[in-house]
Amino acid sequence: MRAILVEEFGDANVCQLAEDVPIPEVKPREVLIRVHAAGVNPVDTYIRSGTYSRRPNLPYIPGADCAGVIERVGDDVTKFEVGDRVFTVKTVTGAYAEYCVAHCDSVFSLPSNISFEEGSALGTPYFTAYRALVI
C-alpha cells in the first residue's frame, strides 16, 4: 500500500511517500479501515516535528483521524462489519495511508449523509470543540 512515512523528526519535508508499505494486520478488538479521507490536525505537526510530549518510534505513519470503509474486523469485534462506513478518532497504525488499523472503541459509524471528507474532521476537531463548548 501507499503511505506517508516519517523517518526523522522535522518540518513537512520529512514526510515521504512510500509505495510498498505492508497492509497492517488486525488484532482482536481492532478493525482495518480503507482510508477515503484523512484529517490533518495541529497535533500531527507537533508530533512530526519532535516537539510533542509523545514521540512515536521512527519510522511511523502520521495521522490520528480518518474516515473510510471497514475492510476487515478482528476477533471480538461485534459492532462493525466489513463494508461499514466509519470514522476514527485514533488510529493504531496512522491515517496517512491507504489502510489503517484502529481499536474498535475509537471507531464510530459514519452516516451516509456525511461525506468521507467531513467524517475525517469529526475526530479531534469536533470532539475538542464539543468538550470546549459543552463539557
TrEMBL record:
Domain Alcohol dehydrogenase-like N-terminal, chain residue ranges per copy: 27-111
Keyword NADP: yes
Signal peptide start and end residues: none
Keyword field: NADP
GO molecular function per UniProt: mRNA 3'-UTR binding; NADPH binding; quinone reductase (NADPH) activity
InterPro entries referenced in this protein's UniProt entry, alphabetically: ADH-like_N, GroES-like_sf, Zinc-ADH_QOR/CCCR
Cellular component GO terms, alphabetical: cytosol
Pfam families: ADH_N (PF08240)
UniProt name for this protein: Alcohol dehydrogenase-like N-terminal domain-containing protein
Organism of derivation: Rotaria sordida
